[in-house]
Design a protein that fits this description.
This protein has about 230 residues and is mainly α. The protein has ten helices and no strands.
């Protein structure tokens, strides 16, 4: 009986610790200013885990009779993918995902003191449900200038971005998805092709920078990885 009581006490403390850490992480992420823009997919992942942690399983049908906007539909579908996770599991997953995104996207350096307000689950859930901040990236024709701007990145900016990336899988192009039309549709093929080419060139560029074997070969040829990256740019 004593062992059982001790086990229950440990479990309770662990659960309380997760809730406390979750609340702190939610407050931190609300004030987070990423150095690079997170992808829609990652924003939705964080949103879905938060909703599951706060509200448990998503409803099978739309909670309102009116048609959902594309952003609302995307958020509801993302939330439904977390069905079956307990609220404690969702909190733990949210913490891990938030930490991953903090590493992948970085944080804008600031000398100003960041305000860490305590956020209750109810307030946060209400703001997340009503906000359209999950899908801030323009879509449709409005997204074309973004794609053109990304494709015309200057060599200096490109090399700076490469040097600040520490993992081949976390490259900027690898985190993007078609914006002009719905991803996966036949109309998205041209944009998907451009993205695929961007991903390929970016991976090659990061490979010559991060892979030890590739660096050794370039060193033997007296070629700096920056030279190869400039050619790939």
């Amino acid at each position: 009986m004593k062992k059982m009581a001790a086990g229950e006490s440990t479990s309770t403390r662990s659960g309380t610790s997760t809730v406390t850490e979750f609340r702190a992480k939610v407050a931190h992420m609300k004030n987070w200013k990423p150095a690079s823009t997170p992808s829609n997919r990652d924003r939705l992942e964080l949103y879905a885990l938060h909703k599951q942690a706060v509200s448990s399983d998503a409803p099978q049908t739309s909670p309102s009779n009116k048609p959902l906007s594309p952003a609302e539909k995307a958020k509801l579908n993302a939330w439904r993918t977390k069905r079956g996770l307990s609220q404690t599991q969702a909190m733990a997953a949210y913490i891990l995902e938030a930490d991953r995104q903090l590493v992948v996207y970085g944080t804008v350096a600031s000398n100003a003191d960041t305000k860490h307000a305590t956020v209750t689950e109810e307030d946060s859930a209400s703001k997340s449900a009503m906000s359209g901040s999950v899908l801030l990236t323009p879509r449709g024709l409005a997204a074309i200038p973004l794609l053109c701007a990304a494709a015309s990145e200057t060599r200096k900016s490109y090399l700076k971005r490469m040097n600040s990336t520490t993992n081949i899988a976390s490259g900027w192009w690898a985190r993007q998805e078609p914006l002009c039309v719905d991803p996966g549709s036949i109309l998205a093929l041209p944009e998907s092709s451009v993205l695929a080419l961007g991903v390929l060139l970016e991976k090659l560029s990061l490979y010559v920078q991060l892979d030890k074997g590739a660096r050794n070969i370039l060193d033997a040829l007296s070629i700096g990885h920056g030279v190869v990256q400039s050619l790939l740019w």
